[in-house]
Amino acid sequence: MTTMQTEKVLTIAETSEQTGLKPTTLRYYERIGLIDPVDRAPDGHRRYRQSDLAWLAFLLRLRTTAMPIRQMLLFAKLRRGGDATVRDRLELLRRHETRVRGEHEAVRRSLAAIEDKIAHYERVLEEKDGDTGG
User: Fold this and answer.
1) Which residue, of 6, 65, 105, 129, has the fewest CB within 10 Å?
2) Torsion sign (Cα): 98, 100, 106, 108
3) pLDDT tens readout for residues 84-118
4) Which tens digits make up the pLDDT trace of 7-66?
5) From CA 109, how far away is CA 104, in angstroms rounded?
C-alpha cells in the first residue's frame, strides 16, 4: 500500500479550511517552492497529507511572526537539503527569533504607554465627573 492509500488526505478546499489559507495561496506557495509539490489524485486534483499540513502550520507561524517570504523560501530550500542544513536552519531561526523578540519588546513598551495614557484619561474623566457631580 502506498502512503496515499493508508494516510488520510485532504482536498485543497479541506486544507484551505483547516489552515485558513486560500486555495490560491496554497497553489502559489507550491508554485514558488515554499511547499513541495503536492500529491495528486488520479483526476489531477491536489491531495494534501498530514506532513503537508504540519509544514503549512509552521509556515503560518513564520508568517505570523512577520518572517519575510524570501527568508521563508530560504528556510524551505534548506529544509529540502536534509540533515546537512540543520546548522543553517538553526541560525536562520535564531536570527528571526532575535528580531521577533525585539519587536515584541517594542510592542510591549508601546502597549504600556497606551495603558498609561488610558489611565490618565480615565483619571481626567473621574476628576471632571467628580467636579460636576457634587
Assistant:
1) 6
2) negative
3) 999 999 999 999 999 999 999 999 999 999 999 99
4) 799 999 999 999 999 999 999 999 999 999 999 999 999 999 999 999 999 999 999 999
5) 9
* Residue pointed to by grid coordinates 503560518: 60
Helix residue spans in the chain (DSSP H):
3-6, 12-19, 23-32, 50-64, 69-80, 86-132
pLDDT of residue 129: 87
Residue of 92, 111, 114 lying closest to 103 (CA atoms): 111
Among 58, 62, 129, 53, residue whose Cα is nearest residue 97: 62
C-alpha cell, 57: 502550520
In terms of Cα–Cα distance, which of 19, 28, 102, 34 is closest to 71? 34
